[in-house]
Amino acid sequence: MKSPFTLPRPVKQGPWRWLVPVLLVLLFLLVLLWLPWQARQMESNERQEQLIADTLWVEQTLRFELARSEEALAALGNDLVIETPAPAALQARFAQMFKNGHELQRIIWYDAQGQVKASRGMELPPEGLTQSSRDAAAMSRSTRLGRYSEPYGATGLVHGLIDFHLPLVHAGKYMGSLVATYNLQTLLDENVPWWFAQDNALSLLDRDDHVVAQRAAGGPGRGVYTHKRALDLPGSQIVLATDSVKAAPKLLPNLLVGSVIVLALGLVISLVALWRHIARTIAAENALRQQMAFRTAMEDSLLTGLRARDLEGRVTYVNPAFCRMVGYPMEDLLGKKPPMPYWAPEAMAEYEGRFRKVLSGQATPQFETVFQRSDGMRVPVLVFEAPLVDAHGRHTGWMSSILDITDRKRAEELNRQQQEKLETSARLATMGEISSMLAHELNQPLAAISSYTAGALNVLARETQAAPLDTGMLKRALEQANTQARRAGQIIRSVHEFVKKREPHRETVGIPNVVDGIRALVELQARQSYVALQVDVPDDLPPVLADRVLIEQVLLNLTRNAIEAMQAIDPERRVLRITAHTGEQGQVAVSVIDNGHGISPEVAERLFSPFFSTKAEGMGMGLSICRTAIEFHGGTLTHAANPGGGTVFTFTLQQAQEAPVTER
């Protein structure tokens, strides 16, 4: 039993009591070590981020400089395709372009045949353009868009060059090209600021990472802070590579002294950092203001109208081109909600229906419509709609690009009129070829009518001599005369209906009736060439929606070609077949089959080209007009080899929705 006055036993002192101070000291040392390391990492990241931002800025500067030169070439190309200037004026234009861009080394103007019409600058090598440049020229010509070649010519003494090919197109026709050659080294020297070149080594690399241009005013890079950015040049893969001359930041030699210095100079550094931040902010605002002015100038110079609307359809932005297109000032359009003042009254329902779709978020991406100018004139336009999305991914409205297609509509109407004239000329040419045969063909029914009427008169004459009247013989003679008269009338009606000029009129017609309508003309040509005609057209074929005269013209042209293709074979093999059947996807297919000489692969490639013909006296428009007529009906005209020799021409027509067949 313990006494209340008994002293407590001493507590045993273990090593754990030193653990906390040691841990605190180690933690302090770790913090002292971690702070400089963290500062070093932050400085390294900041340098890398600054290098990336500066590289992006340099890349945009280079691209803007090339884009400015492209616009100058495009303006020159537009003037060249309209009217060739005098040589002195053209050389003056060239000289001004060289003055505006020192990186420009050579300009060559080629015509449509690849011949040099004018040039300025460095001479072209004897071997001409490089293979890469020729490939870019071919791609530019096929796509009708500007194209850069791959860089070339980079050696130890010669800097890399690059060619830009701009096709010259007028009214859809290739008129030649402009080729501009740029010196990539000069491009770097003229457009990269000296302060950036002092801190970084810049290089332009091709697709194989070969250096084609380089600028290193501050010496070679150390490989610590690097970044690569591809220039957005169509057809060329050029990469802008930057390598900073700065080395990685070092730890302070004396951590304690460094910590004291950091603590003592913290306020000064904070003030300096704040001053730098303010200076960068002001510089960024100035750069942004310059970029906004540049973009505004670009938008004001566009020929394409631009219009922005919010989700309620209110106009928030229009460019000068749109104002010129509709004839209203910008003040009368901004903030305006539908109905718009440029909506044409006859298309008001169409506008309102499309506007309801816009409000529901279902805008039509592309459509054609008509605007009414302030002076009442109608302007056909092509509208492209795209959603506007802010930096947070939210849909804030719609952006529209509007093109004035008045000239295109006028060209389409002119082309349609020319096509109608060609179709009429083709029908008249066809009838000219068979005019000599018509006289012989009409002689037969007219001679038969004369014979039958003479026989009828003889019967009547015998009746007057007290002989019994043979009414059966008289009836048969008159019936035969009537049949022959209808036959002659059918031939004349077929010719008249075929050659008369008329507007295309699509209606529900039956293929059997179309074939019967021209059968007399086909048989007329076939008999002259000793060709047997076989028609295999079922009477229960579905009707089609088509212009009957156009389809008759196609059939008559195809059968005439088939008859001519069998002139050189034996008479017993001269068989012309016309077949029809129901095809796929609700179509009716009609085939014209001959046993002639067939079509060679060389001829097949250009068979449907306008003005191409294998006949010495042919115009080369028959098959081209046939294909145009079939495509007008939404069908196709194709050809294939006949297994038994010859060719099979097949065209398809869409079945009509209506059941009854309407004949003219």
Structural commentary:
This protein is of the alpha+beta class. The protein has 6 domains: 48-188, PAS domain (Beta-Lactamase), CATH 3.30.450; 192-244, no CATH class; 259-299; 302-404, Beta-Lactamase (2-Layer Sandwich); 406-501; 505-664, Heat Shock Protein 90. The chain is 47% helix and 21% strand. It is built from 15 helices and 21 strands. The protein has helices spanning 19-82, 87-100, 131-143, 184-191, 194-199, 255-264, 266-301, 320-326, 348-359, 406-464, 471-499, 511-528, 548-565, 601-605, 622-632; strands spanning 104-111, 116-121, 147-148, 161-170, 173-183, 200-205, 211-215, 226-230, 239-244, 305-310, 315-318, 366-372, 378-389, 395-404, 507-509, 532-536, 544-546, 575-582, 587-593, 637-641, 647-654. The strands form 5 sheets. The chain has a 5-stranded antiparallel β-sheet, sandwiched between helices. A 5-stranded antiparallel β-sheet has the order 11-10-14-13-12. Helix 11 crosses helix 12 and helix 13 (548-565) packs antiparallel against helix 15. It is elongated, with a radius of gyration of 42 Å. The chain starts with 18 loop residues before the first helix and ends in a 10-residue tail after the last strand. The relative contact order is 0.05. Mean pLDDT is 78; it is low at 1-13, 616-621 and 658-664.
